[in-house]
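Supplementary Methods S3. Complex input for the zinc ion-bound model.
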Amino acid sequence: MRRLMRAALLVVFSLLFAGCGFDSPAPPPETGVTVKVLDVGQGDAVLIRTPEQTVLMDTSDTGQTEKLRAALRREGVRRIDKLIITHPHRDHIGGTATVFRACDVKAVYDNGQPTSTNVYRDYLKTIQKKEIPSWTLRDGDILDLGGGATLHVLSPTQEMVDERGMQNGRLNLNLNSIVARLQYGSFAMMLTGDAETPTEEGILARHAATDIRCQVLKAGHHGSKTASGSAFLRALGAGAVIISCGADNEYHCPHPSVLARYEKYEMDYYRTDRNGTVTVKTDGKTYTIEQERGQKNDAGAES
Ligand SMILES: [Zn+2]
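Predicted complex, serialized as structure tokens:
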């Protein structure tokens, strides 16, 4: 179930995007699913490739777009079937202009919660100008990613968006991040944007344990102590967690107490500041995780 929002459904992509592709595109895997948590500094960009589709969830920060562009080029991504923006903070939406320039984006999905920043306004303008179909995602929606892969949206609800992410009288856009569970065969990965503990608790309240268990978690909110609550981690039962964060970032993510919690629940953790791009590959039964550099479970205590 999907909801049509701002843009009209017109198909003029090939002309609009002619001449902006990369040289030697690597096709999506014929079998299996690959998820890359890209090393894009302090921000998120997660590239999902199924046997049929290429999906990008978030686009890094405005200052990291060269890293994102290089990663997309390296991966041979010319077409993005689904661009998903978990929430409109700059470290997730910042690279959208770069993505729209570099790739043929077939459809855009977001949480429909507006904000007043220039980068958000430009994002909306580009979607309109390029006439890209755009949709809002809500708890219960299921996206077909092709080849047997599906994305099950677990948050936000319409009610959460209507309340505008208010927390203790303050607006917190993180709370309404799109949270979704990628499913391929018996493998599942939880993708969280910047969802914080109240969002996690809502998911636990609304969903059966079988709907949220997964092997791998993309850490919510860059490993901040506002996310990765004990109840959520226990319910997920994941064996590994990937944290997207920048080296020596000003927010001091990931928080040592969160790393300790991952260890308590026997989760191997990977972090993009120390491990570079982290790649999960699955055949639908088993999975592997590769890091570009360093060792897993590197707490970075020396820094
Ligand atoms: Zn963020």
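DSSP finds eleven helices and 20 strands in the chain. The chain has a mean pLDDT of 89.
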